Amino acid sequence: MAWRNLGRNRMRTVLAALGIIIGVMAIASLGMATVAIQQQASSQLGSLTNQVSVSAGEDLDTDGLTDDQISEIESIAADATVVPQKTNNTELTSRSGATARVSVTGVTNAAALYDVSAGESPSRLTTGALVTNSTAQQLGLELGDPVEYDGHLYRVRGFIESETGFGPGGGRGELVLPVSALSNQQYYDSVTVIAEDGDAASALSDDLDAYFNTEDETTLQIQSYSGVQQNIGGFMDTLQTALLGIGGISLVVASVAILNVMLMSVIERRGEIGVLRAVGIRRGEVLRMILTESAFLGVLGGLVGALGSLGVGLVLFSVLAGDATAVLQWASSQYLLYGLAFAVVASVLSGFYPAWKAANESPIDALRG
Cα separations (Å) of 332 from 12, 39, 41, 250, 273? Predict the structure, then answer.
């Protein structure tokens, strides 16, 4: 009977359900959007959170880190991977005459810092070179092609993924060579220390700072990224709460629309309800009938809204996280369930007053109109 009553005025029912659909899509889509953004940020920062960057401090007497300081860092960070680097800039020229300005990094353990999309990233780089994908495409380079730096030729052994852009040189426009290629530079420009995890990196950063620096003198600049991901997570939680609040407002507005629809329905069916009461239908049965109509509206709007949100989520995760199926993970799909549950609860609550009003009206007064 409740389903039949909703079908009496289809346009009004559709408009009420549309409000629920919009509310559910607002809650679920905004919730899934924050999860997708958080996953993207975590993915890009994941390789940084266990790293400590060491560079020359303002009170260092030399132009960079000395061999003795590198040895001291290796001694303190005995359980971590220490990667000293020398840097420079140069302009590469292709056979066709195209040029590209790149940063040059001299390093031995290239595998610790660079992921390659083609070729290899050796753990002991003594010959050859790595270049970023963007530079290789710009110059038309292939694996095995020579590049020239400081009068010497180096064969390209691998292409660095441009997406690994937080490494030395930013992962873009970079040429990686054996550290011997920059032997004319006496000092190292920086050292990257790779610890087991973020907590180990934070502890190591404190140890290095205590060893090399004092309150009045900064010999080496020690920087840890372990707190970055945590700060981003806190920000995303705050943003998520704010966005869900905005989505919740949409659903509250939809609930008011349902309240209005059910009130109008009760007024129009006043005589019919009076007849039902006169032939013996009890108040509780009238109450359940009206509440069931409200629940149908909530379920119908919630299901359609959840399906629409799933489509939006697939697009968001495909664009932001690069994996559309990640929307099915509980971290994001839970918002579909929350939106559906919120829609049903809000709809039932909206129908309670019209149901109570219809159930408690005297049959005689209802038949009189």
Answer: 32, 10, 15, 20, 44
């000293």: which residue's tokens? 84
CA distance 72 to 77: 9
Rg (CA), the chain: 33
For residue 185, give the nearest of 309, 87, 306, 51 by alpha carbon: 87
Distances (CA, A) of 171 to 62, 113, 188, 199, 331: 28, 10, 19, 25, 30
Please report the DSSP string for 177-190 in residue order: E-GGGGTT--SBSE
Q: Mean pLDDT, consecutive 10-residue segments, the chain of 369 residues?
A: 68 79 84 82 68 91 92 92 94 86 93 90 91 90 92 92 53 85 93 86 90 91 76 76 77 76 78 82 86 87 90 88 84 88 86 85 72
HSE toward the beta carbon, residue 44, CA cutoff 13 A: 16
- Specify the pTM: 0.58
Helices (H), the chain: 2-8, 10-45, 67-76, 133-139, 198-212, 226-268, 270-278, 283-320, 330-360, 363-368
Structure tokens at 119: 């070729």
